[in-house]
Amino acid sequence: MKKRLLFTVTLLCAVVSLLNAQQLHYGLKADLNMFKLNGEGIRSNYTMGGRLGVFATYDFSKKWGIQPELLFSQAGAKRGDDFSARYIHTSNDQANKNIKLSYITLPVLLRYNINKMITVNAGPEYSYLFYANENLLTYNRSAFKRSDLGIAAGATLTFDILHVYARYVLGISNVNDIDERYQWKTQQAQIGLGINFR
C-alpha cells in the first residue's frame, strides 16, 4: 500500500512539474482533411472532411520535442461501381454510394524545430472508428475495421499564439473487414490552424 501511495505521489509531482515547465504548450486545433480510401470496390478519390481537437507540445531541447494530439475526425468515401461484383455474396445491392466515417484520432509526433518559426514533425497516428454511416453489406454487417494505423509527416509555421500547418498521413493498416482478398488503405492530406493557450 505504501509503495502504491509513493508511486502515485511521485507520478503526481512529475506531472505537476511537467505542466509548470516552460517548454510545455497546449491549445486547440482544426483542419480541413482531404481523405482518400484506396481499394477494390471503392471509388479512389479525395473527399473533404474535417478534424477538431486539442494538442500539446513539449520540447526536450531547443531543437527536439514531442507533440501528442487528440482529435475528432470526420471523413468520407464512395462505394465503387464494381463493389457488388467484387463482393458477390455479401454486398447490399441497395447500399448508399456515400460513406461517412467518424474517428477518434491520436497522433504522437516527434518535432524538430528548424528555427523559432518553422517546425517539421513526423510519427505514428492511431485512429479508432466509432461511427460509420454505411450499409455496404447485407445483415447490417460492418465493412470497416475499427482500428487504422498510419504514418504522419508535416510542417508547422508558428506566429506567436497562432500556427498553421500542413500534414500528410499514409495509412498502413488494412481497414477492410469484409474478407482478406482485397486491402483498403487510407490517405489523408490536411491543412489547418492551431491556437496556443499556453
TrEMBL record:
SUPFAM superfamilies per record: OMPA-like
Keywords (A to Z) from UniProt: Signal
Pfam families the UniProt entry points to: OMP_b-brl_2 (PF13568)
Origin: domain of life: Bacteria
Signal peptide: 1-21
Residue span, Outer membrane protein beta-barrel domain: 20-175
Stated name of the protein: PorT family protein
Organism: Chitinophaga hostae
